[in-house]
Amino acid sequence: MFWYIVRRLFQGIPVFFGSTFLIYAMVFAMPGNPILRMFGDRTPSAEQVAALEDKFNLDQPFFVRYFLYLGDVFQGDLGTTFSGQSVNDILVRTFPTTLRLALLAVLIQLIVGVTIGIISALRKGGIIDVTALAISLVLISLPVFVFAFVAQYFFGLQLGWFRPTVGPGAPWQDLILPAIVLAGLNMAYVIRLTRASAIETKQMDFVRMAYGKGLPERRVIPVHILRNSLIPVTTNLAADFGILIVGATVTEGIFNVPGVGNELFKAINRHDTPEIVSIVTILVIVYVLVNLAIDLLYGVLDPRIRYVK
Amino acid sequence: MRIPRIAALAGGIAVAAALTLAGCAPSGGSDTPASTGVVTFAWSEPENPLIPANTNEVNGGIVLQNMFAGLVYYKADGSWDYDAAESIESDDNKTWTIKLKADQTFSDGSPVTSNSFVDAWQWAAADPTLLNQYYFIDGVAFQGGTYDGGENTLALNVVDDTTFTVELATPRADFPSALGYTVFDPLPKSFFDDPKAFGENPIGNGPYKFGPDGWQHGTKLSLVPNEAYNGPRKAQNGGIDFMVYATQEAAYTDLLGDNVDVVEAVPTNALATFHDDLGDRAVDQAAAVFQSFTINENLPHFSGEEGKLRRAALSHAIDRKEITDVIFNGTRTPARDFTSPVIAGFDPDNIEGSDVLDFDAAKAKDLWAQADAISPWTGTFQLAYNADGGHQEWVDAVCNQIKNTLGIDAAGLPYPDFAGLRTEVNDRTIKAAFRTGWQFDFPSQANGLGPLYATGSGSNDADYSSPEFDKFYDEGLAAQSQEEQGKLFNQAQGVLFQDLPAIPLWYSSVTGGYSTLVDNVKFGWDSWPILYGVTKAE
């Protein structure tokens, strides 16, 4: 197990170099000079453009710039934006918010989705099964901004249950509404997966055996059925968590969540190479780690899974 | 005689109401602000450190505007008055003597002297990596302004602690009106020790200073009134919180819920409804922003006499009113000249040739046919725009009108982003007409004419060169009276209407709004809300 983790972590190293290089190359290939953008409709003089290109190392060849950047990264400095802000500070500021939002969204999916999924499986064709299917299908077919605006309008502005946008400091209670929106989008998958998987598990021999030896339902359902149905759901939720921490740009924008998605969007608009590369690289690393954690979680859920060195 | 109590009370209320309506207390009057609530403003992180010489966009600019007092300030209507200066005078419009008001201090207690201005300007002019270095060289041609830098770049001369002189390269009658721009703000001595730290925590001499919470990146920036400031822009509220918003949509939603007080831009998806949503609290007024499209001389079929005819034909082929009404919901005003209605001297009725902006299909066809007689038209007329700026709708509409009126192929040419478009415009490699715009830096017509159309100017994207225009422009710049200047600038614009180096489209409007919790919200000529005048009960 220990060596398995070590080996997986070492696999992250080529991923790190590969992703920084690819992203750096792609940002480098973006057409247009970011210096000109800084001046808006005004045209700067050639001298000013040259001086600024020199200041931000934009006049250096690609590999020089890339290695200058890598050198800084190994000293723990993810670079400085055009505005002179440290990318480290930006990440420290935005990433926890995105992480909290993603956690909340996954938690809502887990609690609501899995519960409804199990109930649907146990009472197949019942009223909860049918209603949940209908609602989740509507949610899944709506574009995110429609669902987000409607939720913001009704629950935020009309009913006043939530603050329509996230307030200063992004407190937990303000994140609930955007988390519900994000959770709603993936809810259908969670419900359907749990339901299908639970129906399958319900017919397994060990479940019949459990009932047969006289165990009560409150023990059979959570321990025998639920636990054994969770693997596909976990995979799906993990993938969704990965998507969410990379930043739900649209939802973050509508609810004014000061997260990674928006910061990245703005950085791309500015062609701010160090910021784009650093944020995306961090996200890649987090994604790798989350996937590792999920793989380890499989072993907890199903002791038959063994990790090979 | 004793005044009956009721009458006294009523009188008091009337005076108070008058003061509130006027938006600001008389200068040098009582020190009590009209209100004590903290006004919140929808904002986003500035793109550059908060240094006057390096801030050229609204988010940084509006903070600096409230933290610094320049020599002059602008009133809502675009006229100027003295702020830190007592007088700015010249006999020949070339050598200017500037006297400061006595006993002014920065919020850290250090004195505001001639050197606060002179050193700040010299510093800004010497470093080409500062975005606003431009203003000391092309924007306002100071004597000695060059790009090669050096310690004492500009011909500035300190006479005493409150007096200094400025030498300009060419006579310029509107020089004082330029000085309200934040670029020309003073800097305290402490700035030069550590400009980087200053950019995070600036110290100014204006109506506000950083509050105890200061600047919490990504969340908000808090300003509180600066007691040391005694000028005409005294804060009328208990402070300003600049709240960071990721999108205009989120800010607008919060405005509807009274969670933010002042919003300076209504998102596109609310333009059709914001008057209904906000009622009297909607702000919709002309801005000092001129929109156009430009065709460089080097584009085939657009040089010489043929080019002139084709430009005029294109201009006549566009129904500006229809587009501003239908696509922009009336938040643009069809252009009538090359400046803006909010800039002093706006006088399109007296400019010769301005009828080229009128929609006239028959005339357009006729002019186009005349051009075809010189050299027949081939290919597609393309209008380039940046796809990240919400331009597609109007570009498509303009192209459709051209297509329908002139019977030629016309289409928009999208560039993924602004940087991409500007790079090709700047390199002159662009093979199409392209959208252009100009936001005035200071309320003077000269600012919208010289930098764009004078021979060899920095932002002359059309490579336009007309000795006739240059002559009228230079004479107008040096004119001794407003009237004379207006006449000359009108003649200069008359030349532009003949040649159409840019084809005027419309003026932008500022669309904003304010919450039910605040009063006395006014937007200035520069489209920025005048935050120091806003009142809010606690």
Short description:
The complex is a heterodimer of chains A (309) and B (538). Chain A has 309 residues and is mainly alpha-helical. Chain A is 77% helix and 0% strand.
Structure description:
The complex is a heterodimer of chains A (309) and B (538). Chain A has 309 residues and is mostly helical. Helices cover 77% and strands 0% of the residues of chain A. Chain A is built from 13 helices and no strands. In chain A, helix 5 (87-122) crosses helix 8, helix 7 packs across helix 8 and helix 10 packs antiparallel against helix 13 (273-301). Chain A is globular. The N and C termini of chain A lie close together (7 Å). The model of chain A has no long low-confidence stretch (mean pLDDT 84). Chain B is α+β, with helices and mostly antiparallel strands and 538 residues long. Chain B has helices spanning 5-22, 58-67, 114-126, 134-139, 175-178, 189-193, 195-200, 248-256, 274-278, 304-317, 320-326, 361-374, 392-406, 418-427, 445-453, 467-478, 482-499, and strands at 38-43, 72-74, 80-82, 85-90, 95-100, 156-160, 163-167, 208-216, 220-225, 239-244, 262-263, 282-294, 332-334, 380-386, 409-415, 433-439, 502-514, 518-519, 535-536. In chain B, helix 15 (445-453) packs antiparallel against helix 16 and helix 16 (467-478) packs antiparallel against helix 17. Chains A and B meet through helix 2, helix 3, helix 5, helix 7 and helix 11 of A and helix 4, helix 8, helix 14 and strand 16 of B.
